[in-house]
Structure formats: C-alpha cells, structure tokens
Amino acid sequence: MGEPMRIRAQMAGDKVEVRVLMSHEMETGQRKDGGGNIVPAWFIQNIAVMHGGQTVLSAQWGPAVAKNPFMHFRFAGGRVGEKVSVTWTDNRGDKRTDEVAITAG
Amino acid sequence: MTRPHKPVVAALLFAAGLLFGTGAHSQDSTAKALQEYRDALQDGNPAELWEIKGEDMWQQPRGPNKVSMEKCDLGLGPGVVKGAYARLPKYFKDTDRVDDLESRLVHCMVSLQGYTRAEATRRVFGGPGAAADMEALVAYVSSQSKGVKMNVALAHPREREAYQMGQKLFYYRGGPHDFACATCHGEDNKRIRLQDLPNLTSKKDAQRAYTTWPAYRVSQGELRSFQWRLYDCFRQQRFPELLFGSDASVALTMFLARNANGAAFAAPAIKR
Amino acid sequence: MKKALVSMAALAAVLFAGIALAQSRSAVGEVEAMRELMRGFKPSGQAGLSRLVQDEVQQFCSDPGWQRNKARIAAIEGQQLAAVKYPADGKLMGNWKAGESIAQSGVGKQFSDNPSQPSGANCYACHQLTPQELSFGTIGPSLRNFGKTRGSSEAIQRYTYAKIYNSRAYSVCTNMPRFGHSEILTEQQIKDVVALLLDPESPVNK
C-alpha cells in the first residue's frame, strides 16, 4: 500500500511542471544489516503518470535510485483544475496511486 | 594474482591526492563542492513526506478516546498550530512546567487521546524501516512556523530558570572525554572532519542552527527533530542517554531556541 | 548491579558536593537544581550515570569564566602533570602505522559502542596530521610536521606522551580529552600515536 506521495502539478507557461516525492526504502539488495545478512532488494520498478486518460510519463527504475525519491518533469497539454495521477509499483508487487489537481503558475 | 596490483592503485590514488589535495586551494574547492551538494538537495525535500503524514495524524481521531489532536493547545490556544513552534518552549499552567513541542505533544496524546505515557513515547525516533509517529507530528507542527520569526519568551520565572539551567548544561563538562556542548560549539569557523560546526554562543550561528531543525538527513534517510539532535550530540559526548522530554532536554532546548530569537524559522530543512 | 548501585550512590552524594560546601545558600539551590536536571539522563550501554559526576577539573572548566582564576589554573595543571604515568619500560615511541589507524578511528566509549572493541583517538576529528588525509577537523591546531619542527629528543617524546596522556597538564581547560588519565587509550596505543607524531618516517613529518 505504501505511504502517501507528495505531488505538485503547476502551470509553467504552456506546460505543466510536476514534482513528485515518493516514500520508499529503495533497498538495493547489496546492503548488509547489523547481523551481516543481506537486506533483500526492495525498490520501485515502474512509474506511470496519467493525465486525461493518457500516459504522460512512464519510467522503469532500478535499485540505484535513492531512498524517498524525488522526480521532476514537464508535460504539455494540461490545464488548471485537471487531474494528474502518479502510480508506482515496486518489485514486491506493492502499488500506490496518488492524484492532484493542476494549479495555476 | 590481484595482490601485487594493489600498491600500484594505492600509489596512483596517493598521487592524485597530492595533485589535488594540498594547500588552501583544496580546502576551498572541498567547501565549494559540499555547498553544491547541499544546494542540489534543496528541491524536493523528503521532509514533506513526514509533514503530510503528521498533518494526517494531527487531524485523524486516534487513541482509546478516538479524538484528533485538533484541541491540543501548543501555547497559542487549542488547535492553533500556525506559528506555535516559533514560541516554544514555554511555561504551561496545566502541566505546571516548561514544555517543548514534543513534551507538549505527549501531554496532548495522553490527556486528549487517552494514550498512556509509555504508548505515546514508545517510538520517538525513527529507525530503518520503522518511522516514528512523533517525528511526523513534529515535522507537521514545525512546518507551520516556516517564515515565522522565532519569539521565545522568558516571561515566567520557570522559563528563566529553564534558560539558565540549559545554559549551565551547555557548558557542563563530563564523561571520559571531558566534553561539553561548548567543546564543539563554542568557537567560530570550526569543523569536525569536514563538517562545519555552528558556534552556538554567537547570535548568527545559533539562529541558523536552531531554525534549520527538524531536518531530513540524507545520510540517514530520516527526518530528525531538534530533540534527536541533542540526543545524538550527548551520545557523541560520551554521556549517558538523554531522556525524551526530560527537564534537561527541555532546558537545553529553551537555551538554544531563545538564542535564535529574531530569526525566521526555516525548517523542516534538508541536511547531509 | 553492585557497580551500578555504587555509582548511583556516588551521584547522589558527590555530585556538586564540592561546590555546595564552598558556596553560598543560593548557590546550594542552584546545585540542587543541577542535580535535579541530571535526572534527565539514563544509563545506557557502557555509559553509566557516574559519568555525570564531575571531577575537580571538569567542574572548574564548566565555568565559562575559568580564565580569571590564575592560581587554580597553575595548581590544577601541576597536579595533572604529576599524575601522568609514563611507560614502565621507558619506551615512549611505538609504531606510527598503528598510530595512524588509532588517529583515524572515532569509536569508543559511546553508549552505542561495543565496549570490548578498543577505542580510537579520533585525532583527525580535530587535527590535521598526514598530508594524505584531507578530511580533518579544525577544533585543535594542525599537527602537520609536528616531529619535523620539534625533533624527537627524549624531552620531546616525554612531552608528547604526557600531552596525549593528560592534555590538562599543559592547558587546563583544553578541548582535548585525557586519553591516558581517563583510560580511553592503552599505554601501547599512546606510544603508537606518539610515533605517528614524532617518527621521522611518519607521513606527518614528510
């Protein structure tokens, strides 16, 4: 289920500027715990950002992305008040979706 | 087979160290690189994840009494969160003591929500894979003082007493290493290794230091409260463990918060 | 358990007793308040409450105005110097390579540390030493070329050993810990750090 994301979607000229903070451990699978055992890999694998029924961004991530990752991008064709949703899926199959309305720049 | 190669690699690194690593120039460029790193962290501070979680916790009915924290009085009246952190610690009549934010939150969780003290303080600092509710609440409440000028009063005699005791504790040397807070935080422009140390006896540094906690610590992947900062300083001071919400903790916070008066609060921040 | 009881008793009885005897009634109130404040700590790992009980020097140096008391400064320094224990075998210099790893290590004596592991001296936290280590602090003076500028005569070796063993013998309220006096480092470890500082082969002097 995961913890809530923090999403901001704001008009910047004719584009929508999106900033997303995700709450995730992003374990690489390379680290050992205090007892010397490998901490199993646990990271976000897929990102999908939707707007008006269309995918405006999709990404495949690996274990090299930082804990509590931050993503920043722009897309064209959005208007104030329309919804932007972000979904991540991790390598355990856990999934989280959050949604915000686009605000004025 | 690889063994004979190792000294070669070491020698090359050593040569690189000599080339780039001598004199004042390298110190400047090290400091510059550190500053660039800090600047790069500013956008997208994960502390916001704690803030939204804390805000939710503040508003949701919780505990045996199933009530929210929205009647909690942080000093500006029941439910007033805006600007409250910039005026803490302060004396509260109902508890008859000087409270900082955390001890006040514990008071509200006990008196309003019906938790026991032990439940309310079960996990006060987050660890790997186990975030602390307390730090989320602290992140939320402190974020509501962003931009507000620090204005900690010494009006009540108990507030003055807490300040004086905090000052004494700041200079109190003890433990096997003879360390006090002042050992590392009593002079300008000092460093431990490459970490700059604020001089908490000077107004400017004291203001900058206090107004940038709580902070998201990138190296730990955790949001850390000011009380955690004190707790971990005492650990490194080789002192016993600082008790959460104790008079000692509140007094030292009072001393340092009051010394930051006049500066705009700027946390939750992001740090190395 | 017994040790804990003794240290608790020591805390109750000794904490500030020195000041309390010597000062006025209002000061006694202050001492009481400070003792009360120390209840804000709990024993943890190897860090017991006895660590909050100050010795004479710690007490003296906790007063920000300590510089004014010139007579006490001289007396305490003399007394700390007299208590330095030099190695029985008369050898003051160990191995600089071992000294370098002791200088690098910051573990030891924290409640989070394993007490069975040897402590480090953490010299680099505060001092510049070898030119290879760029990550050094500035709380203490640079010790670069420490031996090169001073030589390594018997007298310099004795001074260096004593300074590490008990820094307060030379500067009463210095920020530097008393590595021998407070049993942070062993005799051999101090010898190794002396070698790091004085051995002509040590990178500190190259």
Shape of chain A: elongated
- The count of β-strands of chain A is 7
Number of spatially distinct domains of chain C? 2
What do the pLDDT scores of chain C average to? 89
- Considering the protein shown, what is the CATH homologous superfamily of the largest domain in chain C? Cytochrome c-like domain
What's the gyration radius of chain A in Å? 16 Å
Shape type of chain C? globular
Can you describe this structure?
The complex is a heterotrimer of chains A (105), B (272) and C (206). Chain A has a four-stranded antiparallel beta sheet, with no helix packed on it. A three-stranded antiparallel beta sheet of chain A has the order 1-2-5, with no helix packed on it. Chain A has a single domain, classed as Immunoglobulin-like (Sandwich). Chain A is built from no helices and seven strands. Chain A starts with 5 loop residues before the first strand and ends with a strand. Chain A is elongated, with a radius of gyration of 16 Å. By secondary structure, chain A is mainly β. Chain B has eleven helices and eight strands. Chain B is globular and about 55 Å long. Chain B starts with 5 loop residues before the first helix and ends with a strand. Chain C has two domains: 2-53, no CATH class; 96-205, Orthogonal Bundle (Cytochrome Bc1 Complex, Chain D, domain 2). Chain C has helices spanning 2-14, 17-22, 25-37, 56-61, 70-82, 96-104, 146-150, 154-165, 187-198, and one strand at residues 41-42. The N and C termini of chain C lie far apart (51 Å). Chains B and C meet through helix 1, helix 7, helix 8, strand 3 and helix 10 of B and helix 3, strand 1 and helix 4 of C.
